[in-house]
Amino acid sequence: MFHLVYGREGHPITIIKDSHYDQWLSEQSAFVRNWLVHSGFEGKGHRLIPKQDGHLDRVVVVVEDTHSVWQLSDVAKALPKAPFYLEGGSEQLSAAALGWVLGQYQFTEYKAGDDRATLYINDEAVVNNVSALAKGVILTRDLVNTPAGDMMPEQLSMAMQTLAREYDAQFSEIVGDALLAENFPTIHMVGRASDHAPRLLELNWGDESAPKLCLVGKGVCFDSGGLDLKPTAGMRLMKKDMGGGAHVLGLAAVIMAKSLPVRLQVLIPAVENAVSGNAFRPGDIVTTRKGLTVEIDNTDAEGRLVLCDALALADDDQPDLIIDFATLTGAARVALGLEVPGFYSTDDAFASDLMNAGETEEDNVWRLPLHQPYASYMKGSISDLVNSASTGMGGSITAALYLQKFVENSPWVHFDVGAWNDRARPGRPKGGEAMGLRAVFKALEKRYSS
After folding, report:
1. Contact indicator for 44, 62 with CB cutoff of 8 Å
2. How many structural domains are present in the chain?
């Protein structure tokens, strides 16, 4: 539920840049000056200001950057349950309101949340824009935060179906052994050991005459590592291994809510990488949808296997752009940490737009190189490819180079994301996170709306 409403009521919030606070304070009434000084407020953070009868009057918030998305995120959690309103220019209002909504986020499926304040903004366009962006981020967070027991391939399918119904999109899926009949052998291979049937989920939306945009998301709903079993610590957060699928559903929600002029296709190979008597094995060789053979070096490098068939399908139609999201490698997290997702691109102009959008939207991303000499690490001796390089170096790059073999006809962007905050920051609580989603949408707006 959004605590953001179109209108003008409640207690005013005044946002002041820290360097302007002393000047602002000098212009206030003696009562306000005395209240702030004697209540110990030092011009940092926020303070509630009462009326002389003791009832709440207004709120002052002192920040370093009055244009930051996160300027109201902590305040939004701290204020009492009451109505508040904010005024200003549309750009500043949009940033502050988005930070307000994201700062109030709570995952409440299994635990009651706290009652929180409501923000009124008397600009309907701002409210609608912020609500669309926040919906995509919150959908992504909720899907990632949901335990694997309640987010298996069939539940991920239901989430896509719900989104399709809301925006009058078309949904279809290929389930279980039908994946073999329809030539998606790697998706079937990775997911066949689970009691939860593997499937390829697909959503289509938009004008058939518009440029085609394809989003592909890794949907490994839980990753045990397969027969190359993960250690306990490595398995603890593997409910988030469907984070790529969560990202493309969140991004699709924004695209459809904002009516971006594209023909949208969303593909999610949804599987559980489980262990049983029919699990795929190290040393097995699979012939992919594209016809390339892959020797399995490590069953814990399964994400690139399910993605390669989906990417090959996406590439068949030569769309204007393919973007995939995947919680693919620990190597990307070693290089960039959990707060800056890395991406690869075969489209230099769009990559530049992504970097710029990451800066302006405070949703930073970082381009990594498709260093072609490393592709030799992915060559097989008895197959065309292996699914895991023999070296531990450059693991995110070699994974991206593997995926590139399946996208030959279309501009392509690959995001290697963590989908998880390991610490709380303003507007970004610990837990599932949409990383780069707002930056990508901003870059897509530039590409398709200009």
Report:
1. yes
2. 2
- The pLDDT > 90 percentage for the chain reads 97
Residues 77 and 151 grouped into a single domain:
no
- Catalytic option among 230, 258, 367, 446: 230
Instruction: Tell me if residue 304 is catalytic.
Output: yes
Q: Mapping DSSP to helix (H, G, I), strand (E, B) and coil, where does residue 353 land?
A: helix
**Final residue of a domain: which of 91, 122, 153?**
122
pTM > 0.85: yes or no: yes
State which residues form the domain around 207: 134-449
Q: What are the tens digits of pLDDT across the range 6-23? A: 999 999 999 999 999 999
How far is 302 from 309, CA to CA, in rounded Å? Answer: 12
Structure token digits, residue 344: 């690869």
**pLDDT 10s digits, 417-427:** 999 999 999 99
Pick the catalytic residue from 290, 304, 333, 405: 304
Q: Are residues 298 and 340 in the same domain?
A: yes
242 within some domain: yes
For 237, the token pair is 């957060």
**Is 398 in contact with 374 (CB distance < 8 Å)?**
yes
- Respond yes or no: is residue 258 known to be catalytic: no
In a domain, 424, yes or no: yes
